[in-house]
Design brief:
With 191 residues, the chain is an all-alpha fold. The chain has one domain. The protein is 73% helix and 0% strand. It is built from 8 helices and no strands. The protein has helices at residues 6-30, 33-49, 55-78, 86-89, 94-129, 143-147, 149-172, 187-190. Helix 3 packs parallel to helix 7. The longest helix is centred in the middle third of the chain and has 36 residues, at 94-129. The radius of gyration is 20 Å and the shape is elongated. The chain starts with 5 loop residues before the first helix and ends with a helix.
Amino acid sequence: MRASDRPARGAAVLDRAISGLNSWIGRVAAWLILPVVVVQFAIVLLRYVFGYGMVAMDEAILFMHATLFMGAGAYALAADSHVRVDIFYGARGPRYRAWVDGLGVLLLLWPVCAFLVWIGWGYVARSWRIFEGSGTAGGLPGVFLIKTWILALPVLLALQGLAVLTRAGLVLAGHARDMRPDEPPAPEEAL
């Protein structure tokens, strides 16, 4: 291995490590869809057939949805399945896509992530300070845990932005051929 290839190899390892972490978190979070469906079915059955409702079950759905969507945000970026205007992006070459993705991370993603951490820090810290629970009688404890996703999402997105920026640098330096990440494993392969 040439000395000039070492930084590129290190950057590729960093890209794979961050993308792998976010893919794993996203795949684990995706499995929450099964309990969401089961619990939602139970809520409907209990409420409309037996006339019985439980606040804790309603809140469990909210907690699982929050974990599912907040956990899958960085996964979508890792899997390159986020929304973009493909009319300007898809038909272009790898170097153009690398510039667009790199500038997108620097000018859009990281400032938004920094803003989310800045405005969410006090909110989440207050929730942890009092170990916030449900404000409703019969609700779930541990609201502070679910509010932690308010900070975890931008941190995971910023890390994935670093992976995207690293991949863009590899393409621009000629060490990689394309910006598109390797295909993530199917959810059934994850477990």
